[in-house]
Amino acid sequence: MITKDMRIIDVLQIKPQAAAVFSSYGMGCIHCLLAHQETVEEAAAVHGVDVDVMLAQLNA
What is the pLDDT of residues 15-57, one digit of tens each? Predict the structure, then answer.
């Protein structure tokens, strides 16, 4: 299960198809250096995304 405190890079490693979800929100997380440091919650906040909605999509 993907949680809001996981780093973006960890999410992408365990679920590569999550890249499509991040991309749908305008997040170029695959190529971003912050993916190694930023959590799902932090990325959502920066991009003005509801983290709970995004988590539901990531875990679907």
Answer: 999 999 999 998 876 667 677 789 999 999 989 999 999 999 9
Closest residue by Cα to residue 5 from 53, 47, 37, 50 = 37
pTM comes to 0.86
Rounded CA separation 26/23 (Å): 5
Q: Which tokens hold the place of 13?
A: 């490693």
CA 4 to chain centre: 8
Domain that holds residue 47: 8-58
1 within domain boundaries: no
Residue 2 forms part of a structural domain: no
**Tokens of residue 56, six digits:** 């539901």
Number of domains, the chain: 1
